[in-house]
Amino acid sequence: MRRSTAVIGVTLLSTLTLTSCTGASGTSSNGTGAGSSSAPATGGTVHVLAAADFSHLDPGLGWDGGVNNFYRLIYRGLTTVGAGPGAESTKIVPDLATDLGTPTDDAKTWTYRLKDGLAFEDGSPIDSAAVKFGIERAWDPEMGGSPYPKELIEAPADYKGPYQSGDLDSIETPDARTVVFRLKKSFPDFPSALTMPNFTPFPKGTGAAHAFDTKPVASGPYKVASYVHGTSLKLVRNPEWKASTDKVRAAKPDAFEWTFGLDGATIDERMLAGQGADVDAIAGSIQPATLSRIQTPQLKARTLSGYGGCTTYMGMNTSRTHLSDLRVRQAIEFAVDKDTVVAALGGSRLATKATAIQPPTMLGRTDYDLYPHSVAKARQLLAEAGLSGGFTLTLDNRPDAKNTALAVAIQEALKPLNIKVKINTIDTSSYYEVIGTTAKQNDLAITGWCPDWASGSTFLPPLFDGRRITPTANTNIAQIDNDAINKRIDEIAAMKDVAAANKAYGELDKQIMAQAPVVPLAYEKTITVTGSNIAGAYLSASFSGGIDLVSVGLKDSGK
């Protein structure tokens, strides 16, 4: 469960949080497109141009769409997401495990069997002990990453991971190839949670003191050959990886090379020029100013565009004066002009207006629009609330150009209602800390959310379960605590059929919006240009819609 990278520009550039699904005119419309008409050849080096380094090479610490994408090149887990455009990238598939696991005890116990012939880069076996140890690392006080190991797996309250506390009894290893997990409660979607990076196995006893942030131990097809933090990273083949054990990773290139610290405009110029080694390169989203320059047939042929898999929205703090009245919140819903919002984000090639909370890439999503733009309807609701005379609201926001444009669009949309919007600008580095502190949060806040996997379970409960409201690190910034919503969240969580649960989350989405706790603003898109020699590039609905690194390669490895 992550704050939306769609509203943090540096993350888009640094971690290849690109886009998937539907594209603009002349670009990929199905997540295939640029460089994908031919299968990659074996060999060569794929170059990656980026503004900033990855958050962490240690999967026990890193946790965002781009770095999770990168992790699949050097790490493997019991399960992972599928490799392929569109719906393929939302499927959960076996990786190190022979299947998606066997649930027993009402899905509170899960048993996995490892494939034969698995080894780390040092030649040591990837066995049940390594799986157990790698997951136990999530409890170490020095670790961060996704919350799922600690949220789902039984553990003593004072357990502090393998380095300090030793073995965790609730992860059993009856033999070298069998792992048994005992969970706190029934969780039918456990195979999806296992795709998170801090479920990565490691040789027992390794990785203390953040050692993997500089020298990882690879289980995937590549290993780290060299790494200069903030400057460069090179991966080469891991000779211990066996393609026969891996149905997900094509692993066609001999190497990947990242160059970090490049200015966004410089990256755009290099990708458009496509000279030298840049014919073998991929990069993050182009700058909005570059958009008008990619209209030639040659550049369109190397362009990918689509949804990033996140929702940009405005939270309305339901605990505040005026906003505690449903009619006021609904009036604001009707008043916000989504077409103006899309224009503020750069136009329809870079965003589409949002009506549902969940983005189009989510499984089971329901498409609806409860609040089509109507100033007249908004005025009527405010009159019913006795507030036609107007009032003042404070909108928390960040200082970058895009978010400033969004804030002004909101400000202008509410003027006809006599609602004065004061924009409170907060430094980006502390923004989420501030709006996640209930005592510091103001009336409104522009933010966003991306799922951990394509299920409503990682989208709606963290944002709208009233029992999750916390004084700090709060994700329910609407501070909505609605008994009917809370009850339905519990009912869906108890469903044993994951597909049925996802459909139910789609219906819950509409139920939540009837209470108007947030204004969905946009489903943002990103546009990226690939090198002319790139093959196998498609956009994954996972990893915030990035180019799937496990499938990309070169058309001609001899160039």
Notes on the protein architecture:
- The chain is α+β, with helices and mostly antiparallel strands and 559 residues long.
- It folds into two domains: 53-257, Periplasmic binding protein-like II (D-Maltodextrin-Binding Protein, domain 2, 3-Layer(aba) Sandwich), CATH 3.40.190.10; 311-525, Roll (Dipeptide-binding Protein, domain 3), CATH 3.10.105.
- Helix content is 24%, strand content 18%.
- It is built from 16 helices and 21 strands.
- The strands form five sheets. Strands 1, 13, 14, 15, 16, 17, 18 and 19 form an eight-stranded mixed β-sheet that branches.
- A hairpin with a 4-residue loop joins strand 5 (102-104) and strand 6 (109-113).
- Helix 9 packs antiparallel against helix 11 and helix 15 runs antiparallel to helix 16 (498-513).
- The chain is globular and about 75 Å long.
- The chain starts with a strand and ends in a 5-residue tail after the last strand.
- 54% of the residues are buried.
Considering the chains and any ligands shown, give keywords for the structure.
single chain; alpha+beta; D-Maltodextrin-Binding Protein, domain 2; Dipeptide-binding Protein, domain 3; 21 strands
